[in-house]
Amino acid sequence: MSAPLNCVIIGSGPAGYTAAIYAARANMNPVLYTGKEPGGQLMITTDVENFPGYPQGVMGPQMMEDLKNQAERFGTKIISEFIVGIKQEDNGSHTLVSETGEEIAAHTVIISTGASAKWLGLDSEKEFMNKGVSACAVCDGFFFRGTDVAIVGAGDSAAEEALYLSKLCTKVHMLVRRDEMRASKIMQERVLAAENIEIHWNTETVEIQGGEEVEGVKVLNNKTQEEQVLDVKGFFVAIGHKPNTDLFKGLLDMDETGYLITKAGSTHTNVEGIFASGDAQDSIYRQAITAAGTGCMAALDAERYLTEKGII
Q: Which of 140, 279, 282, 301 is flagged as catalytic?
C-alpha cells in the first residue's frame, strides 16, 4: 500500500464535489470516489431553480457535470468506484478498500455519501419520475403552483411538506395509510387547520395515472376497499430517506436512523480525521445548497486538521 493520501472523499453530489473544489484549491490533492450514486439525487432531478448562480435554472445532471468539471480543473482525481470498507489505523491514518479490493491509505476522509429517498415501489412511480412525481416538495413544489397535488406520508416531514405545498397549490390531498398520523401533535394540528389540505385516512396508492405527465392518482381505502381517482398534477412521496451510511456502522456515531453525528458547528465525526458532509449527516434541510455548504466546511476542517498535524 502506498503512502497515505492527504484527503479521500467518498461520494459525489453537491457535498462531495464542493469538498473536492476546496480541498484541491488548498493543495490537498484530493481523490474522490463517486460512491453509491454518482452525482447524488440531483442526477434524477430535472429543473433546479433554487441553486444560486443559475438565474435561468439548470438540469440536475448538468449542474453535477459543472461541479465535477470544476473539481477536476483544480486537480481532483475522480475514480468511478465504490468504497466498500474503511478502518482506522493505530497511527491515526485510515485504510479504505475499493470495490476492486485496492487498499487506499488516507490521512483524512470526507464522507459525502448522501441519502436516498424511500419510494412506494410502484411501476407508475418510476414511469412518472420527474414528470410530476417527486420526493422533495421544497425542491419541486414551485412547479405546481395553482394546481391540485397529492402527498403520501404521515410523519413530521410529510406534514411539513404538505404545509409547504398548501401555500403554493390550490389543494393538497394527503394520503395516510392508517387512521392516525405519526407526526407530532403540533404538526398534526397545523395540517388539520389548513383549509386546503384534505387528509384521506386509511388510504393507499394503487397507481399514478397520466399521459406525458401526471394527471391523477388511483387510491384505495383499505378499510372499505373503495377505489377513487384524484385529479392531481403532482404526486409527492414523503415517507422518509435512508442515509447511505451502512459502510460506517461500528466505526462512526450515528443516530437511530443512520444519519452520521457531527460535532456542533463542525463536520468532525467521533473519529479523528474523518469528516461528514451533505445529506449523510443532515436529516433536516436536505438541499443541494446546504449540502454544498457542509462540503466546504468539511474541506476546511480537513485542511486545518492536516495543518495542525504538520502533514501539509
A: 140
